[in-house]
Amino acid sequence: MGSSYHEVYAGWRSDPEGFWANAAQEIDWITPPTKAFDGDAGVYGRWFPGATCNTCWNAVDRHVETRGDQAAIIYDSPITDSKTTYTYAQVKDEVSALAAVLIDQGVAKGDRVIIYMPMIPQAVFAMLACARIGAVHSVVFGGFAASELATRIDDAMPKAIVSASCGIEPGRIIGYKPLLDNAIELASHKPQACVILQRSQTVCDLTEGRDVDYATAVAAAWGRDVPCVPVAATDPLYILYTSGTTGQPKGVIRDNGGHMVALKWSMKAIYDIDPGEVFWAASDVGWVVGHSYICYAPLLHGATTIVFEGKPVGTPDAGTFWRVISEHNVAALFTAPTAFRAIKANDPQGDFISKYDLSCLRALFLAGERADPETIRWAQDQLQVPVIDHWWQTETGWTIAGNPVGLGALPVKLGSPCVPMPGYDVQILDDEGNPVSAGDMGNVVVKLPLPPSCLPTLWNADARFQSAYLEEFPGYYQTGDAGYVDADGYLFIMARTDDIINVAGHRLSTGQMEEVVSEHRDVAECAVLGIADTLKGQIPAGFVVLNTGVNRDFEEVTAELVKLVRDRIGPVAAFKTVVAIPRLPKTRSGKILRGTIQKIADKQDFKTPATIDDPVILDEIRQALVDKGMLD
């Protein structure tokens, strides 16, 4: 890149539209943009209005002539003991055939398609096939509970669903088809068709008149010419649902044009990856990292991406990541700190690392949750490469604050994701909306307009978008995080300001879990909150007050509550800890003092709130945690 971060950021500051207009030259446009930004369009403005493009063309077709024989996707599945490499030319064939299948099922430009798939290449093919024909995809994490999938079906109203017979976890197979059938039964909206990939580990029954066999249909459509459909740069590419504090998921919209421009720019500037190199985001296509950095950004850049079906430990051991890096010549790895905590717990001395040649690896990027300094230090010591924390959200689609290796890496400060990227004017405000001094904690906000790739609104919910993100601090996007900026301009993210907790990189709503727990017949009241966990960062813990007269074994109640949350929200919730308490601590006005409970559980100092109704309850909670073995 040649320029330092400070020069590039100052260049963006002085001419934001010129900066992104220049970055847009890396994209193939059908109708090139005549202006970068229209501040009068949409809720807060829209990027590249009037331009037309196609994301699949930019990610696949345009590379076929120049690098058609280069690996585009490497599928590595230690869990099924299989590997497959797809070149750019082969990806185009696969995507075109699947696009033809979707067209045959009535899917057209603007229609929605839900993708409910495990970590297999066909999940990426499905995303790209939708982009090819101008359909809007919504990927739902494979194995999500039927009720959760049903809410997304009713919100997105898909014309079709692409799924698989099963997903595979260490030691168990999760049948997706029963979950999918149940979800469709629960949903008011019914899709016209389901395209089902039969996996050999579990072959499912197909519903006559609705279900289509993926392999048979793709084989029949093979070789059909399916051109890339022009869409407006401002048209939606996908909807990705993120946890909402009300329990109703929020459909984050990603547009086509701005998304491509920002992601293409990020691959070199932030991750220092060149076309042709191998980039591995060890995530899942169900999460935003999988959208941005497994599917779209590496392919837009002409790099090679890895689709990994496995775990950092147990498939088969704590050396799996190192094998993949060594075998496939990975230049940069992007994963969640949870993965490294798991590897460290299984192999604290890093014995597996010495078994592999990792000389190809130039950097490790961590995101998805706060990277604790101990984990960063361990990774630095073991790998001897820069370990880069960076911070962003489902809503933004790419880095808000990070350490741009491609612009010349800045010194690392443990506990900080570093500095804002071009496009983000990050500020810290108090609850009244006033700027705070360097080092003082406050609400982390971004001055509007948000840069390209960030959500322009929520799916069919402009008013909710306004109230959730823009209302509290007019002129700013509210991130929902609290933190501070130090005297050097480094950002530190410290906590959430709402009920969203981060479990192993997955954002989950404790409010939603509370709704489920409170439905149990023996539960009078409950509070679910995130408590610190050395492996996952945070885990949800339920503090329950039982109905008077309940004299059952509490372990029975706990097992039922765990099953209830698992059935209603899914295993990803990781809800296993339940503590029985005689009363919930509340203010005199009846507000539950969740923050105080959390501090007790996390062994943090706290002041007894002046508004508490009865301070004695805090000692009772502490004793309950001692009895449970969670406190000394």
Give a verbal description of the structure.
The protein is an alpha/beta fold. It folds into two domains: 5-310 and 390-447, ANL, N-terminal domain (Rossmann fold); 501-627, 2-Layer Sandwich (GMP Synthetase, Chain A, domain 3), CATH 3.30.300. The protein contains 18 helices and 31 strands. It has a seven-stranded mixed beta sheet, with helices on both faces. A five-stranded parallel beta sheet has the order 7-6-8-11-12, with helices on both faces. A four-stranded antiparallel beta sheet has the order 23-24-25-26. A hairpin with a 5-residue loop joins strand 25 (476-485) and strand 26. Helix 3 runs antiparallel to helix 4 (88-104) and helix 4 (88-104) packs across helix 8 (214-221). The model has no long low-confidence stretch (mean pLDDT 93).
| Rg, Cα atoms, Å | 24 Å
What is the name of the CATH superfamily of the largest domain? ANL, N-terminal domain
How many separate structural domains? 2
Structural class: alpha/beta
If you average the pLDDT, what whole number results? 93
Strand content: 15-25%
Tell me about the largest β-sheet. 7 strands, mixed
Total beta strands = 31
- Helix share bin: 25-40%
Give me the CATH architecture of the largest domain, please: 3-Layer(aba) Sandwich
Query: Largest beta sheet: what is the strand line-up?
Result: 5-4-17-16-18-19-20
Q: Predict the CATH topology of the largest domain.
A: Rossmann fold
Low-confidence stretches: none
- CATH class of the largest domain, named Alpha Beta
Helical segment count: 18
Shape: globular
N-to-C CA distance: 53 Å
